[in-house]
From TrEMBL:
Keywords: Metal-binding, Nickel, Zinc
Pfam families in UniProt: HypA
Binding positions (Zn(2+)): 73, 76, 90, 93
InterPro entries on file: Hydgase_Ni_incorp_HypA/HybF_CS (IPR020538), HypA/HybF (IPR000688)
Domain of life: Bacteria
UniProt binding sites for Ni(2+): 2
Native organism: Streptomyces dangxiongensis
Key word Zinc present: yes
Record's protein name: Hydrogenase maturation factor HypA
Top-level taxonomy: Bacteria, Bacillati, Actinomycetota, Actinomycetes, Kitasatosporales
Function: Involved in the maturation of [NiFe] hydrogenases. Required for nickel insertion into the metal center of the hydrogenase.
MF annotations from Gene Ontology: nickel cation binding; zinc ion binding
Amino acid sequence: MHELSIATAIVEQAGEIARADGAGDVSSVTVRVGELAGVVPDALHFAFEVARDGTALAAARLVVERVPAQAWCGECAEEFALGMPPFFWCPRCDRPSRELRSGRELEITGVEAVPVPP
């Protein structure tokens, strides 16, 4: 289950971001996960609960924003959903696409933390 190593990295990076901002405990972390990233959101949620234990994120919630896989057809200027399993064939002109526009994302987009009292 590689989601555990991903969740551990999210916990570490979110903790670093909170410390750099002078904040205390983290209340939530938002991540964008692309449809083709190879990450199962439910498994990531479970792994995050394990990885956050005993850290500044112990009570934090994980918010996963799913990003659909989209391709671009340069032949007819059409953006289209790839689906699962991915099908890189333009539904409009019936030609293969060579450009993936979205779907491989795996990034932290937000960290909410509790300010440290003065």
